[in-house]
Design goal:
- With about 350 residues, the chain is an alpha/beta fold.
- About 30% of the residues lie in helices and about 25% in strands.
- The strands form two sheets. It has a nine-stranded mixed sheet. A six-stranded parallel sheet has the order 3-2-1-4-5-6, sandwiched between helices.
- β13 and β14 form a beta hairpin.
Length: about 350
């Protein structure tokens, strides 16, 4: 029996589309990337000479042969364009953040369900190596009392030529990087009881949030999430502390750098990090504390699209990221903004 082919159209060809989506789609048997909506004709032809390039989205919405559209357009277009795609009968993947507010998120979740279409959001950091390895080791920590995750960068200069630095709808690192950290937490622990957030614009000439500190409250457990754009020495990317031990991991997953360099997901060594960034696992034993380095699992962003393909061809398979879980992320982001504005803890 031949494998079902899913024809895919890619909306946009900026960093997200060219690095995080196109190479992965091209690496999954069964997906056929046929169209790209972009004005960057020369760049696309150099990489994908057989793909049709269009500048009018109507050509994609009206094309009955396109099954799936990937929305990597700027954040303020996530809601309106995704809605048009669903109304045209297309399955959709939306780059994070899903949308800018919960009302739009709820509307799109309902629309996809009413039309029996798959709608997923690209929270690819569920397949980061440190996060995957923590899940593997989590039971060894006993009852977790503190979970921390940080997504730090050293970008002290503001580039106002980038839309991510200037957009008024869904801009700033709370929507950009906070989406990833919040999604990881919700995937592990579910929704918290309360949230407190401190947001700031720290860099000279910055127009949008470039620092955040978030505390999520789960009975006696606390979750601390943070990001800064001026961290020359990054904090742990992920850490968990329990009554039987701790897990601490430094160093970002290498997949982004590998994809940026042109390395493909099916190449030997993809997703495998330098052992110098191995996590430290300390666990209690009879003689005290056992300290060991834990080599990370290979990161696997490709798994998002592999799971997506399975869900598209067989409805018994779950989507890699449900739109409803992504809607919960947007709800928490809105509560973080409210908490910062009021200077107080917000109960859900």
């Amino acid at each position: 029996m031949s494998q079902k082919v899913i024809n895919v159209g890619l909306l946009g060809f900026g960093l997200s589309a060219s690095v995080f989506h196109a190479p992965l789609i091209k690496s999954v048997a069964g997906f056929n990337l046929t169209h790209i909506l972009s004005k960057q004709k020369d760049k696309i032809i150099a990489l994908y000479p057989n793909i049709e390039i269009v500048t009018d989205i109507e050509l994609l919405l009206a094309n009955p042969e396109i099954d799936l559209l990937i929305n990597t357009l700027p954040n303020e277009l996530h809601y309106s364009v995704t809605k048009r795609c669903l109304e045209a009968g297309k399955h959709v993947v939306v780059e994070k953040p899903f949308v800018v507010n919960t009302a739009h998120a709820s509307e799109l979740v309902k629309l996809a369900a009413d039309k029996n279409l798959c709608l997923s959001v690209y929270h690819n950091r569920r397949w980061d190596n440190g996060y995957l390895t923590l899940q593997q080791e989590l039971d060894k920590l006993g009852t977790v009392h503190l979970y921390e995750a940080y997504f730090d960068r050293y970008r002290p200069e503001v580039n106002l030529q980038k839309w991510r630095e200037t957009t008024t709808q869904g801009g700033g690192i709370l929507y950009d990087l906070g989406s990833h950290l919040l999604d990881q937490v919700l995937n592990l622990f579910g929704m918290p009881e309360a949230v407190f957030a401190d947001l700031e614009t720290q860099r000279t000439n910055a127009q949008l949030t470039d620092y955040f500190h978030i505390v999520l409250y789960y009975q006696k457990m606390r979750v601390v999430l943070g990001s800064s754009s001026i961290m020359a020495q990054a904090r742990p990317v992920i850490a968990a502390y329990g009554d039987k031990g701790s897990y601490v991991k430094y160093g970002l997953d290498p997949q982004e750098d590998m994809l940026r360099s042109g390395m493909l997901p099916l190449e030997r060594g993809f997703g495998i990090e330098n052992p110098i960034n191995s996590a430290q696992l300390n666990t209690k034993n009879e003689s005290g504390v056992n300290e060991q380095s834990i080599i990370s699992q290979a990161g696997n962003y490709l798994n998002f699209y592999q799971q997506l393909y399975s869900a598209l061809v067989d409805c018994s398979h779950e989507l890699p990221v449900s739109a409803s879980s992504a809607a919960d992320v947007i709800r928490l982001i809105e509560l973080c903004i409210q908490s910062n504005d009021l200077g107080q803890k917000i109960y859900l």
